[in-house]
């Protein structure tokens, strides 16, 4: 067999494994996905009908790629393999079996937005406090129940769950779950989690159906097995129960979806379920240079919870990993963009050979801006382009209304967001009345009590008063001042701040990022007109150009680390290597969380084939204020012999690495706009000793090894994390997380 020669001995054995359960838990880039692909081709070559093969991947893109590769080996027959994500394969199965479980064959699939809206309505109908029962929080709870196969009935009867909800002051979630399920059912709709949950119901309640699919799927394969949840685990276990031909591949060191219910326990369950299991070890990495592989090993060693394995490679040593320090997020973006440009020109790379990976979507803005300025084409994978995100569009809609109250699309978007009791019917009436009476909509809005009566009219008029208030401020303030005021007084910031889910925090950060962008716009000496309308025009042109130009050609890829799983690029930039960003502030509360965060870093490092860059900024805009940032602890976990690290405050001109050279040569391109200086002249005394800060309170005088002397202005505790807002004599106000800040109380 020709293609078998493209494999090493262990890979070949795994590919040739035909019957019975097998597991390949192996390091990144060791060819796990390649083995699955070749094994499928091999089975078909040996006469297995492609219709009898089920291969489950983590993304649709991965499925497409795998099918494509198999096609190269076996031709058209590859089309007949059951291949796709859990959700796509089982929604297809549910379509033909839906009636058995009481759903129409043409059931609708609700996306997250639909689900959220439905929950919002239910909360309203049940007269519950919508500040407490935030759609995302409720949906998160329901989703995690479903992924653990906890039905409504079980949820309501489970004392532990009920106690949890009561402790969280949300005792009615079970009831909402009940309503939500019955409403979905009545609407003939399933949400994403239902697709897996209902497949389990089908297989449990209809042994005939289960039996049918057990006979169809004689060979079951799962890629990225470490990130399956319980619901997915049970589906594969049931399907394989008869033939026991199941092969799973994964890497415990790359398990990064625990927050979505993925359960690393599934690997251990697998060993228990199939005692006859054959285990294959792949230890050779074919993707990356020695430096990258060794650096990744040195990082993951810091985790306690992992199956020990050492990955090696015969690939070249490769260049050292570059660690780059920038003065600001803005400069970080510029350094990345300039480096990409230089590398492409100097080493004949294509833009496709570059990926920029970040921890949170909000970080894409500074990168996007820098790439745009240098005319480098890019695409954002999984995640909307910054200006297309809902919360950004919402705030921009307010800004547009502020500048032009006749902007009807903007009005529709925010007249009832955040909620101010203006229902859809009323909204409709507004537009109908304007039409009928030949008035501009905004005129009807301003005089709503006259047109629509007191009850609904007052809410609308209050809205118009608020917008006019914004407009007055815009007359004599710059874009940033107005935007900050609008973000706060429109209620957007409050609304997002209440939502403590991962997604909620991301949206909150995005608003913050937009404000940072506006601040940078206002601070940019090249922009003469600092008004809000000038800014809006600027970004309208940007987004326009983006959507038009980006159809073909080569692109730099931008994405979160989560969506980069399984992929590889010649050159990878991991940006924002700072404490509280990566590791994320939300993941510092337990060892388990921190270890998940470290696995995420491991995933990020191991995407790189040739060259890896890690960048961080010593200051970053937050809510329009420049804040000092500390470099990530993860940087210190890499064995220094693999990196070209620039410690300390030696500045960008010492000529040590490629960035300095790039900076010097391209100084006209990368010159940062003048910025407030945040460095202090303070030098800590040699005997500096941090105090116990558990009793720290506003008004106390403190000393910090970097920022010097200051006075605590305010303490802010949320969950397990306490922040101190301190006004330092030399560097001004800083917000410090107490768990990290070294402070001496005077
Ligand atoms: P990840 O953990 O990131 O999902 P993986 O274990 O699935 O990685 P693959 O993506 O299958 O690894 O392989 C990594 C790279 O190494 C791919 O480019 C693949 O084509 C190449 N590769 C794998 N095995 C070999 C081999 N025996 N000879 C040459 N190249 C190989
Ligand atoms: Mg893979």
UniProtKB/TrEMBL annotation:
EC numbers, comma separated: 5.6.2.4
Family matches, as InterPro entries: DExx_box_DNA_helicase_dom_sf, DNA_helicase_UvrD-like_C, DNA_helicase_UvrD/REP, P-loop_NTPase, UvrD-like_ATP-bd
Enzyme kind, highest EC tier: isomerase
Catalytic activity: Couples ATP hydrolysis with the unwinding of duplex DNA by translocating in the 3'-5' direction; ATP + H2O = ADP + phosphate + H(+)
Record's keyword terms, sorted: ATP-binding, DNA-binding, Exonuclease, Helicase, Hydrolase, Isomerase, Nuclease, Nucleotide-binding
One GO MF term: exonuclease activity
Homology family: Belongs to the helicase family. UvrD subfamily.
Protein name (Swiss-Prot/TrEMBL): DNA 3'-5' helicase
